[in-house]
Amino acid sequence: SQTIHQWPATLVQPVGSPLSLECTVEGTSNPNLYWYRQAAGRGLQLLFYSVGIGQISSEVPQNLSASRPQDRQFILSSKKLLLSDSGFYLCAWMRTGITYEQYFGPGTRLTVT
Amino acid sequence: AQSVSQHNHHVILSEAASLELGCNYSYGGTVNLFWYVQYPGQHLQLLLKYFSGDPLVKGIKGFEAEFIKSKFSFNLRKPSVQWSDTAEYFCAVNSKTGANNLFFGTGTRLTVIP
Q1: pLDDT tens track, chain A, 113 positions
Q2: Which of A65, B54, B62, B70 suits A88 as a labelling partner, its CA being 20 to 30 A distant?
């Protein structure tokens, strides 16, 4: 069966510090991968998606970037965090070509102080 | 671009009451529709989905949703809620562009009072 992992679960970082959040998927190959940010009362906002290694598409301009160095690894980064980067970050994967269901990880709660 | 509207931000019900959460989307083409649920402290998980065929779809835990194409709606229903249904519910529509991205509504928080 497939599983998706995210770490860390919680993170408190000062403004201006770098960020690296990691997401890995097990039990599948060549998935589509997604990064979302969930804010209270605002639903889930898609930040980045990837259809393959090294292929990243950004949905919204922002202070963050994403990379996919391996097939089942998706990393969300920032060189200098802003207060507005605080939020709950979710990674998701989708099996390509069959259905359109996305499966979500447990999320990372980021607080920028 | 697609958008999804969930008009109920917070719903409070007593156990055994019936539930209907509204979801409307804007998109002129063929859509896939989903309801996701996030129980307190748990992952966001799929509740039910509609791809084609019977517009009344049944999901886990007694939930169902009806796709009404003419109304661009996909409302979620449950005849009798339980305390354990307390959660946040998100409606989503699949995009036909990009990597089959999902567009989510803002969510509805359901509180069931025992």
Answers
A1: 889 999 999 999 999 999 999 999 999 989 999 999 987 777 888 999 999 999 999 887 678 999 999 999 999 999 999 999 999 999 999 987 666 789 999 999 999 99
A2: B62
